[in-house]
């Protein structure tokens, strides 16, 4: 019969049962693969505050041109 290594161990302190349960919960959630979903579409209110027009593409220095008058 083989003895398996523990997934984690406490090396300092004396955690309570509640603290260990919280740690196990965090490790379990963090070890699950995440589902990548498409971002939610922006609301009309959020889109109203964005600049419009061509030429606002990502790139070096383009943040400056976004604030210039057209």
TrEMBL record:
Region named Disordered: 38-70
Q: Which InterPro entries match?
A: ACC_epsilon (IPR032716)
Q: Which GO MF terms are attached to this record?
A: acetyl-CoA carboxylase activity; propionyl-CoA carboxylase activity
Pfam family, any one = ACC_epsilon
Going by the entry's taxonomy, the superkingdom of the source organism is recorded as Bacteria
Q: What is the name of the protein in this document? A: Acyl-CoA carboxylase subunit epsilon
Organism whose genome encodes this protein: Verrucosispora sioxanthis
